[in-house]
Write a structure and sequence with these properties.
The chain is an alpha+beta fold and 112 residues long. It has one domain. A hairpin with a 3-residue loop joins strand 1 and strand 2. Helices cover 46% and strands 14% of the residues.
Length: 112
Amino acid sequence: MCSLCGILGGRGHWTESASNPGAFVSRTNSMTVRRERQERTKLANRVLAHYGLKLADWPPSNYILRDAKGRSVLVSNLSELWSVAESVLNETCDPLDESLLSSLSAQGAKDR
């Protein structure tokens, strides 16, 4: 398959499965899929902000990862996101980093 076909009509990745699995079957539920993608993007951005990165949804099935220098990389799915982020940063994104966990905790306290 050419890359354009993959972008426009690729199959959903398991990270895209929603709390409502039927959302991918019916076109009438497309708003549900869109809202769920937006929520996943928002949550990923809470972690990525710690590394100076930002993720944007690029419908229908991809994401764009940007760094502070303006570079951008197309990401196919959320499981690919972390390896791409590490290659952009040229460092490891450690989910157990104390400063990251403190930052997320502080954000959570503000949200309450």
